[in-house]
Write a structure and sequence with these properties.
52% of the residues lie in helices and 7% in strands. By secondary structure, the protein is mainly alpha-helical.
């Protein structure tokens, strides 16, 4: 298992082609089978890796903010929805609301200061527990260099499927 972010970034660079090829390979596999394996691996690595000790996703990613996120954000920040939008959010190229700052404004010493009321995208990250992983592999490959859980799941998945690049 690897959790050193510098090593993960270096390995990601050297395995970039392999990872994209593996993505293509996975798209041709039985989706339900891949979901079962990935879910199992995600449970394994999520139990071994403490996200609150990493926080790397909060330095590299801007989660989408949805309507259902505002009650928690309003409670946490003690601001109105319009105040939250003007102070912390921006529209991206797809017209979705996202936090405007990187690293995230609410990241302090690798810890989320609004953890209990963080947005759904943050709670759900790295999204490996969801079904139909083979339809979301672009993001998995992208997150491979960012998240130790994704990195370890993807590498273990290669091993489990006897993938020979």
């Amino acid at each position: 298992m690897e959790i050193n972010l510098e090593k993960i970034k270096k390995i990601a660079k050297t395995k970039e082609n392999e990872n994209w090829n593996f993505r293509s390979y996975l798209k041709m596999q039985d989706s339900d089978k891949i979901d079962r394996i990935v879910n199992s691996l995600n449970e394994k690595y999520s139990s071994l890796i403490d996200c609150t000790e990493c926080g790397n996703c909060c330095t590299d990613l801007q989660p989408q903010i949805r309507k259902k996120d505002f009650p928690g954000l309003k409670k946490e920040l003690k601001l109105s929805e319009s105040e939250i939008k003007s102070k912390y959010l921006e529209l991206d190229e797809d017209n979705d609301l996202r936090f405007k700052d990187l690293p995230c404004t609410f990241l302090e010493n690798k810890k989320c200061t609004i953890y209990e009321n963080r947005p759904h995208d943050c709670k759900s990250y790295p999204h490996l527990h969801k079904k139909e992983i083979t339809t979301r592999l672009f993001n998995v490959v992208y997150n491979y260099s960012i998240c130790p859980i994704v990195f370890n799941v993807y590498e273990d998945l290669k091993h489990r499927l006897n993938y020979n690049h």
